[in-house]
Amino acid sequence: MYLAMGLLQGGTGLLLSNAWIVGLVPVTWLVIYVIAIRHEEAYLEEKFGTSDGAYRDSARRWR
Asked: Could you read off the pLDDT tens digit of each residue along the chain, which spans 63 residues?
């Protein structure tokens, strides 16, 4: 979902020929990581313990 948001932003920037929109994709991903992903991972680790850590080790992040 988060990857798709960045790709949508990049595609929109390309369609509009707007370098600012495309250039800000990494900033968008950084903000998403800080605001959402870090907190979600901490919550899941707290809720599921070691099984969540084992899952994260076996799964790719940006799929």
From this structure: 888 999 999 999 999 999 999 999 999 999 999 999 899 988 988 998 888 878 888 887 765
pTM, entire model: 0.72
Using CA atoms, how far apart are residues 49 and 63, in angstroms rounded to an integer? 23
Q: What is the rounded CA–CA span in Å between residue 25 and residue 10?
A: 6
Query: Are 29 and 36 in contact, with CB atoms under 8 Å apart?
Result: no
> Which amino acid appears at position 41 of this protein?
E
Euclidean distance between CA atoms 20 and 50, whole angstroms:
41
Contact, 36 vs 6, CB < 8 A?
no
